[in-house]
Amino acid sequence: MVPKVLIILGSGSDLKIAKRTMDILEELQISYGLNIASAHRTHEKVKNVVIKGTEVGIKVFIGVAGLAAHLPGVIASFTHRPVIAVPVDVSLSGLDSLLASVQTQFPASVATVGINRGDNAGILAAESSN
Predict the structure, then answer these.
(1) Nearest Cα to Cα of residue 125 among 104, 115, 110, 107
(2) ∠ Cα 27 72 17 (to 5°)
(3) Partner of 95 at 20 to 30 A CA spacing, among 104, 115, 117, 126?
(4) What does the longest C-alpha to C-alpha distance in the chain come to?
(5) CA angle 53-16-29, nearest 5°?
(6) What are phi and psi of 83, to 5 degrees?
(7) pLDDT tens, residue by residue, 1-34
(8) pTM, whole model, 2 decimals?
(9) Cβ count near 71 (within 10 Å)
(10) Which domains does the chain have, with CATH numbers?
(11) Is the peptide bond preceding residue 107 cis, with omega within 30 degrees of 0?
């Protein structure tokens, strides 16, 4: 079965934030997948994961990333499916990540939840995946 939501982490250290997303999706019985791929270190992997995910029917992508947080915008550049950004507090109280996510350039639109709010991303993904 193809999951409805694909969570992509920029780093394995973002797993604790993604766990909040996964808990919500499990509670709401929304199927999901998880992948680790950096927009900066493994750009081709991100591209391949998103294109394949779109082809097989993923409904919503969630990008969890800190620092410059380009991951959600890169995801959005390869799909027309909804993309949700979860900025992570790694430095600057997460403001660098938040600003990078909310300022994603047209036409790569990204919905952004609050810093470290993986739970809100789960709720938004559930609403968007049906």
Answers:
(1) 110
(2) 40
(3) 126
(4) 40
(5) 55
(6) -125, 130
(7) 889 999 999 999 999 999 999 999 999 999 999 9
(8) 0.95
(9) 32
(10) 11-60+70-103+111-122 (3.40.50.1970)
(11) yes
